[in-house]
């Protein structure tokens, strides 16, 4: 990527990159209450996010063992505190 390409990339507005919109839509489409309850159902003992993800996949809750399915994002965690 040249410097000019980078400058053009930075100048673009939200909505000009379908991948960004798709990611945001996917994040919003997740039933966070259901996901939170599934994680609590599995957490009967201390486990890492990866271990929880593996168990969630084994039970058919998620399509892969990717830990991001079971690790709350910063946005999600902020809503759960105090």
Number of domains: 2
Cα gyration radius (Å): 17 Å
Largest pleated sheet: none
Distance between the termini: 44 Å
Q: Percent of residues in beta strands?
A: under 5%
Point out poorly predicted stretches.
none
Mean pLDDT value: 76
Number of helices: 5
The helix/strand series, from N terminus to C terminus, equals: HHHHH
Structural category: mainly alpha
What shape does the CA trace take?
A: elongated
Q: Name the helicity range.
A: 55-70%
Count all strands and give the number. 0
How would you characterize the overall build of this protein?
This protein has 5 helices and no strands. Helices cover 60% and strands 0% of the residues. The mean pLDDT is 76. The protein has 2 domains: 1-30, no CATH class; 31-82, no CATH class. It is mainly α and 82 residues long.
Summarize the structure.
The longest helix has 12 residues, at 18-29. The protein is 60% helix and 0% strand. The protein has helices at 3-11, 18-29, 32-42, 49-58, 74-80.
Search tags:
single chain; 82 residues; mainly alpha; 2 domains; 5 helices; 60% helix
Secondary structure layout:
Layout: H1 3-11, H2 18-29, H3 32-42, H4 49-58, H5 74-80
